[in-house]
């Protein structure tokens, strides 16, 4: 049964919520809190939507209609086919410009004024320059249209040309979700970072003493730390590997420890979650029982008072 429906029934029959049995209260109160949070979230979403519609109402004049069309074209791809074409075009230009940027990092495709040597593929450099100029012009025009048509100019300054409809509110919601997640799991994350840090420092120190006198190439402590971090958190970068027998043995031990470390961390999280849930249930049952005992006229309260009076008379 829905907790809100039960709450309405209790209000209709004028039944106090505090006289619920503890087993029922354990299900009733958490569901009420969830429903209240969902209702608040829906109300806030409706207010934001109403505020957005009010801000984006540019009027029925020719300029207002043109501004509405351009704003929907840039901001809401779901409003029309033209807006979808615009969104895919912007996304395609972003991908192409990113690809040309990656290609431009290769020495063979860099400009002559950057390297001092003629490029091996001058036609490719010329094409990449054209693509970069087209992308820059496209994003400048898109940004100007967004800024001119935006209902709130300051919020439009938060936009970045990445092919998606970024705005201040979406960034705010994502940031709030991230902060809420970190706030809920900061203890587990802190413990995980502590265990990883201790393990990395321990094995880095061991492999440093094992490889510092290596004739093939001595390791510094920074090299050992980098090797330990990559080996513990990934499958290894591959640029460094122990060559001595003690170093190889330490590497095997670290890989074995890595598997046990992550497995124990998962088990700890599960155990901590169960203990937290058990403590919340015990607290809720205790509070509900105290509330029941303090309600005048409740059966349990009358029973307790009667028992106290009988015990008091017996002692007399």
TrEMBL record:
InterPro entries: K_chnl_dom (IPR013099), VG_K_chnl (IPR028325)
Alphabetized SUPFAM superfamilies for the sequence: Voltage-gated potassium channels (SSF81324)
Entries under Gene3D superfamilies matching the protein: 1.10.287.70
Highest taxon above the source species: Eukaryota
GO molecular function terms attached to this record: delayed rectifier potassium channel activity
GO biological process per UniProt: action potential
Pfam families tied to this protein: Ion_trans_2
Protein name: KCNB1
Species of the source: Lepeophtheirus salmonis
């Amino acid at each position: 049964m829905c907790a809100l429906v039960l709450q309405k029934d209790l209000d209709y029959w004028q039944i106090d919520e505090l006289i619920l049995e503890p087993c029922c209260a354990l299900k009733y109160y958490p569901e009420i809190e969830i429903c209240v949070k969902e209702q608040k979230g829906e109300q806030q979403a409706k207010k934001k939507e109403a505020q957005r519609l009010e801000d984006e109402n540019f009027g029925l004049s020719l300029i207002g209609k043109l501004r509405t069309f351009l704003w929907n074209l840039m901001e809401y791809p779901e409003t029309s086919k033209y807006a979808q074409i615009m969104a895919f075009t912007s996304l395609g230009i972003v991908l192409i410009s990113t690809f040309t940027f990656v290609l431009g990092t290769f020495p063979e495709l860099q400009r002559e004024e950057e390297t001092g040597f003629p490029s091996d593929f001058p036609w490719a450099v010329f094409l990449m320059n054209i693509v970069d100029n087209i992308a820059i012009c496209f994003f400048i025009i898109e940004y100007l249209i967004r800024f001119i048509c935006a209902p709130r100019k300051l919020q439009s300054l938060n936009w970045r040309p990445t092919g998606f409809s970024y705005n201040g509110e979406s960034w705010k919601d994502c940031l709030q979700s991230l902060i809420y997640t970190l706030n809920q799991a900061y203890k587990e994350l802190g413990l995980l970072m502590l265990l990883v840090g201790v393990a990395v420092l321990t094995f880095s120190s061991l492999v440093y003493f094992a490889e510092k006198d290596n004739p093939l190439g001595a390791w510094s402590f920074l090299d050992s730390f980098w090797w330990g971090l990559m080996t513990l958190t990934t499958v290894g970068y591959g640029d460094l590997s122990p060559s001595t027998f003690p170093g190889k043995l330490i590497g095997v031990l670290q890989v074995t420890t890595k598997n046990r470390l992550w497995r124990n961390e998962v088990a700890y999280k599960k155990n901590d979650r169960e203990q937290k849930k058990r403590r919340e249930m015990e607290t809720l049952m205790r509070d509900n029982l105290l509330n029941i005992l303090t309600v005048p006229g409740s059966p349990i309260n009358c029973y307790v008072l009667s028992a106290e009076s009988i015990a008091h008379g017996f002692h007399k």
